[in-house]
Amino acid sequence: MSGRVRDEIKQxxxxxxxxxxAFVTLQRTADALMQGLTVVLKPAGLSxxxxxxxxxxxxxxxxxxxxxxIASRMVTRDPDITRLLDRLENRGxxxxxxxxxxxxxxxxRISQEGLGLLAELDDPVLDVHRRQLGHLGARKIASLGKLLxxxxxxxx
Length: 156
What we know:
3-stranded antiparallel β-sheet, 7 helices, 3 strands, single chain, Arc Repressor Mutant, subunit A, mainly alpha, elongated
């Protein structure tokens, strides 16, 4: 590897193994990319995790999803999905209801306000992704995706 991440984090010693350097580089990259998304979402009062939940619910359609299913589809894990949904419900972005067939199941659905907020964010989010990764070009982005999928294989 290039050692660039060592310079960025001001680490004097070399990494013990290339896998460690790759891991730290991946973390630094993910954090830098997430900061760009955070800047776009902040004016809307959303965290990246809240945005992810709204996108999941938009994709689920009118049927909505139970809490556990939302959690399983999250890009990043959130140990307190219930509190996250509470905040979105308090803002009127989602609604929750108990199912008549099984009162133990609470289904969450995105509201019209939530759909509207996502519609406003769709283009700005795509723009930030283009600014962050567009310089790589389609071929490198496809290769990157394959490499990242392969990296997750043993842990999923």
